[in-house]
Amino acid sequence: MTDDQLFSWRPEVDPSELDVSTLVMTLGAFIDAGHAQHLLRQSLLAELAHRTLGSFPLDEILDHRDSRPPIVFDENHFEGYQAPELTLYEVTDELDQRFLLLDGPEPALRWEAVARAIEEIVEQTNVRLSIVTLSIPMAAPHTRPVQVTRWANRPELILGEESPFGRIQMPASFPAMLSQRLGEHGHDVLGLAAHVPHYLSDLDYPDAARGMLDAIRKTTGLALPSHALAMAAGVVRAQITSQVNGSEELSAMIHTLEEQYDSQHDQREIESKQVMLPSADDIGAEAEAFLRSIDDADAQGQHSDRDADPADGPSAKRGDQNRSSEEGSDSPEPHDEGDGDDQGPYRPRHGDDSWHS
């Protein structure tokens, strides 16, 4: 099977006629902490109108032994097996804006070929921003807002959010590799990794999915509902609180995590508000430049007095002032610095190409 056959559009779909600007991907990775990607996909497809556009043949790209789907043994027979799917949907938000959703397990084979096929989807549909979602276990308390680490091929897509990580090496995942490939080929890509409390990474944690959903809305302007996730998150938090209140050990652990979280948050706020003061050398250089400009102005004034025509008396000066007043209408207006081009964050709304340089 060749690369261009790896993804198949449905017969009735013409990709060039799709009116979309964003591709959201909920592709599994080596870990889906808190099942955040699954919950995000489930929420979008349950609350928004959608249709299937095409799919990948998973027998070509998935090692079923590593991601064994469930099957039921019922007394004397097997049933309930559902083959996994890597499917592309067209989803319509609450404002009738359409976007693409690619959902399914992480490919185990032919990563480069799958990445090329996804890039071809981006080009065929004229997608302007691809969003990769992940969730990772972190030493974070469930009693604080979910943090979402961002990465992108262009810093301005991150909207001022700072990563808590420096330079680290880690095992690659397909979503991470895909992010690099799309950026290398000139396609805008934004990554979102929700931080899930490590003690909840094996359980459903809807707050992580809400965090990613809010980040997608903030970046794209898509009107995405979060009612079901909000209700589910409230139930989960109540269950966790009940268990924590019944265990002194858990309460102590949560308290420690809260102190760490608050300390890091306060430190980031202090760093963001710090003002860079000029050094002593910078101040000295500015002072010297200012004094030189005064000396130059005095020298030019003395030279002008020596070269002046004796006939230039007060009346001549008044005539010059009158001519200057009459010619003032031709002088340029002062520049108003408040009228600059105030470009906002990247928001690929329907029919809006103003973001594109």
How many separate helices?
9
The spatial strand order of the largest sheet comes to 1-3-6-7-2-8-10-9
Largest sheet: 8 strands, mixed
How does the overall form come out from the CA principal axes?
globular
Notable traits:
alpha/beta, Rossmann fold, 8-stranded mixed beta sheet, two-stranded antiparallel sheet, 17% strand, disordered C terminus
Protein topology:
Elements: E1 8-9, E2 22-27, H1 36-47, E3 49-56, H2 58-61, E4 72-74, E5 77-79, E6 86-92, E7 98-104, H3 111-125, E8 129-138, E9 148-152, H4 174-184, E10 189-197, H5 206-220, H6 227-245, H7 248-273, H8 280-306, H9 314-326
Parallel strand pairs: 2-7, 2-8, 8-10
Antiparallel strand pairs: 1-3, 3-6, 4-5, 6-7, 9-10
Question: How would you briefly describe this protein structure?
Answer:
By secondary structure, this protein is α/β, with parallel strands linked by helices. The chain contains nine helices and ten strands.
Describe this structure in words.
By secondary structure, the protein is of the alpha/beta class. The chain contains nine helices and ten strands. Residues 313-346 and 348-357 have low confidence and may be disordered. An eight-stranded mixed beta sheet has the order 1-3-6-7-2-8-10-9, sandwiched between helices. The protein has a single domain (3-273), classed as 3-Layer(aba) Sandwich (Rossmann fold). The chain has helices at 36-47, 58-61, 111-125, 174-184, 206-220, 227-245, 248-273, 280-306, 314-326; strands at 8-9, 22-27, 49-56, 72-74, 77-79, 86-92, 98-104, 129-138, 148-152, 189-197.
